[in-house]
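Bench notes, afternoon.
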Amino acid sequence: MIESVPNFEHEVDARGLKCPLPILRTKRALADMHSGEIVKIITTDPNAEKDMEIFSNQTDNPIIYKTSKDNEYIFYLRRR
């Protein structure tokens, strides 16, 4: 995992959505991306950390940075 906020090519705004919608929107975004590109996912789902970790491990798209602020969870995934 990198230590500073990375640049990104795509963004998924999943605020207000509950599982599985943040994962499904992330999956859709990744399908339209090239290898090595980064997607930023913003969600308010309190289960997002666990869900994104599982999704990342299952799809081999690594989480390269994550943070949370004001009940928002932000993840940066690199497209494999």
